[in-house]
Every structure is written in C-alpha cells, then in structure tokens.
Amino acid sequence: MVSKILQQKREPGESSAEEVSGSDVDMNSDNEDNETGSDDESASGSDSDSLDSQSARKRRRISPDPAILKHDSDDDVPVTKISVPSRIAAPSRIKASQQTPKSAPTLEELTGELPNSSVLAPVDQNTTFDQLGLKPWLVGSLQSMAIRRPTGIQKGCIPEILAGRDCIGGSRTGSGKTVAFAAPILQKWAEDPVGIYALILTPTRELALQIFEQIKAISSPLSLKPLLITGGTDMRPQALELAKRPHIVIATPGRLADHIRTSGEDTVIGLRRVKVVVLDEADRLLASGNAGSMLPAVSECLGALPPASERQTLLFTATVSPEVRALKDRPQTKGKQPVYICEIDSGNPLALPAGLHQTHLSLPVTHREHYLHMLLLTEGNKDKSVIIFCNRTVTADYLTHLFRILEHRVTALHSKLPQRQRTDNLARFRASAARILVATDVAARGLDIPEVGLVVNYDVPRDPDDYIHRVGRTARAGRKGDAVTLIGQRDVGLVKAIEERVGRQMDKWEEEGVNLETRVVKEALKIVGEAKREAWLEIEEGREVGGKRRRGMVKKTQQ
Fold this sequence. Notes:
By secondary structure, this protein is α/β, with parallel strands linked by helices. The chain is built from 23 helices and 14 strands.
C-alpha cells in the first residue's frame, strides 16, 4: 500500500496516488502494469494549482484572500498583505525531543567563537610542514599537490611517527589521514631505502588503489617502487613482483594472506624485514563477530611480519571502535615508547564534516525509485555529482539499469563487478563522464572524490558508523555537501540510532519552490513504472547496463 504520506493530501474530488499507480506496487513483482495508470485522472483535481507549491492544496483553497481582508479591516490598521505559511515549523519527527538545527555550522562559526572549534580539523595557518620535521623535497612534493598547510591529524601525528612511536590516529573523514602516515614513512624510507620498508593494509580494493596512487604522487622525486596487491587480479604477477622486494606494499588483507599461504617462503620473505605497518580504516580491519570479518586475514598478515617490538605500528580511522580503543590499554612493549594517541574529535561526539547538511526524505517504500528520480532532477541537484548507496549488490545493479533507462549518466561500483570494470567505472565517475555512482559500502571508506556534492542513502545503513563513512564522501576538506537519507515506514528506529551516534538531527529535505510529492504523482509514476519493468527484464535476460547480453548468458542460452 502507498504510505500515509501520499494519502494525507488527498481530496474527495482527486484521484489518489494509489489509484494512479495501481494497488500494491512491488519492485520484484511481475504484475506492475497498474503503475502506468492515467496521469489525466490525477491531474483533473488540481486545476490551476502549481506543481511546485509547498503548501497543501486544501489549505491554499480555503486561505483568505489578502485583498478581501484589507477591504474589511479597519481604516486605522494598515494591512498590506497576509501570508499563509506553506509549512508548519516543527521539530524533526525522527527525534522530537530536541530542536533540529536548520543547517550545519559554518567554518567561520567553528573557527571563531564556538568553544568546540577543534571538531573541524582545519589546516593550521600558523604551522608549516617544515616545522613538523619534513624534508624540503617532501614539502615541495606536497605543495605540488596543493597541500601547503597541515591539518590537525597531520600536525599531531607526523612528528611522532618520525620519532618512531606507535600511533593511533582518529579524525573525521576528509581530514588528510593518508598524508599523515604516508609523508613520514616516505621520509624515513628515503634515509634508509631497503627491502619492503612498509606494509599498508586497507579493507577495500578501491581504497588500496587510491593510496597506491597518492604514494606514487608524493614520492615522484624519488625512485620508489610501490606494489599494489588486491583481489580480482591474477596472483602470479603479484607474486613475482613481491619477490623482487618492492619498497612499500599496499594490500587488502585477504589477498595478502593468500600469498603468505600459497606463494612460498621465497616470495614473502621480504615481509620478515618490514619496519612499519599501517592499518588504514582500522575499525573495519579489526572488527570481529560477523561473517565478513577481516580479523583472521589481518592476524595472518601480521604473523608474517616482525614482532611488534621490532616494528612501528600505525592505526588510522574515522570512527574509533571498541577494538581500536582496547589497544590503548595494552601493556607497553619493552624498549619502546608509549603508544601515541591523537584523536582530533575526541572532545566532541560529532563525527560528521562541519560543511555537511544532512536531511531525510520520508516516502512510501513502494515508490522509492520514483522519489529518487525526481530528487535527482530538481534545480538544486541536477548539476551535482551524486553517490547513491545501497545495502545490497542486487539493488545497486537494479538501480544502475533503471537510471540508465531513465537517461541519467550513471555507473556502478559493487563487489559483484569484475575488478577491471570496478576500476573503469570509478575512473569514469572521477572524470565526470558519469554524474551518478550507484554503490554499496565498498565505496563508503576512504575514497576521496572532491567533486561529490550529494550523497543519497537509498537504503538506511544498519550500522551508524557506516552512515558516517557514507556521508563522508561529500563535504571533504572543508567543502560543503548534502546528504539525503530515504526513510520508509520501518526505518525510523535506524535513523534514531544514527542521530544519536552523530550527535545531530536530520532536517526534513526541502527545496524552495519544489513539492516533490506532487512532481512524483504528476510526472514520475508512469515513466518510472515502465522503466522498472524494463530494468528487471534486462536483469532477468542477463543483459548488461546498456542492453548488451553478458557472455556467460550467451553460452548458457546456446547450450
């Protein structure tokens, strides 16, 4: 059934959204012909009402005419105009106990009079990389990448890493954690360029590739040999390169553990002399107790390295989990300095970028695609680069087919795609060849795409920390960005948990001059309904996005 959201504004003479779209619309059902009902019926009751008016139709029709009121009023009271508010200002329905802020605080407020100005992790205008102990060649390399002043996490961690201390760094997304560990590692390697000097473990292939490219860019003045080891590619070339003793290895734990088990001692013997190990997104790597835990593979990788007393260990994350916090209380290793802990946001529970404006959009779950289609076409969003996050690969694949049929420039990123296609799709999105990236949580961590202006949670994440990482793909490095979470009837509890975790309520989504519900009823029900049936037909027939049949499906049909 269509939700109360579409029923509340129905009038006796109007056709409801349920009559227009048919009964019980099911995304997975084959019986969706009723979604293409007549638009004329739904339009007959609207007469001259504006599509984009934000007030209810009944309220607009019974509103008093300002001219009449002016005529009937006393001559001594100058009444020029009476405006009827189109919407009642009310607290968030998700968390009514607190007042919802209108928007995120500005950078000037956070760095000016507000007491918790450290939550932004801005660049320190009074500190330079030279003062942190970096060599001139490294400072010049960072400047060539437009990195001229250190952020809070960089200012806190770089001197301590150069001093050889183990480090735990916690800072919000987009605060420059990669440079915080890459710069001191490269400087220390340049002083003693031997063997496999450092191992960097990351939870996703895309993040590993990004760190690999950033290290190559920073080390361009030197003859550094980094090696990328991730799944989705042939192991044999990786094993041959690993045996040649590269200087820095960037890997996902699962594939590196495979090499340790199967590639032979001659291949992995270089790992026995690693001087520095980095766990980026440490909360994800050390998470335990679920089917997708990477902890066994991480433990196997660490078992092939020198003991903790003979190497430097660095952990970085945007969300400091209990597993990461537990490392603070471990006994001090004999002969080593105490672990240095740098949490830039420890004084404030707010883990979101200050330039992020997070909103929610309540809708009926049976019309989620219709609302999303119209949301992407509003004046405020039509020119933005958008990432749409889903909980399942099946949903991401379906939305990619759907939006391609609806003529959006869209591409996908999820675990069911071949690695080559994942890399190509991400490159297309970075180059703005595709405006929309439909992704699962493989794109939620670490990816730095500054052009992203909008993040949409098509599915509400089950873990509030996943929400933090998702919306952290926008509003990076002091920029502004928007995040919209689509909320169905059963998602209220999840949203409450997210609001409690981030310490900030979600505003109700609104855009001046736009009534999204009316646009959906007038414009989207028929065309999106037809596109949904076509998208599912393409998926059932094994066609790729764009209509080409997959090779495996061709062989299967020929047999």
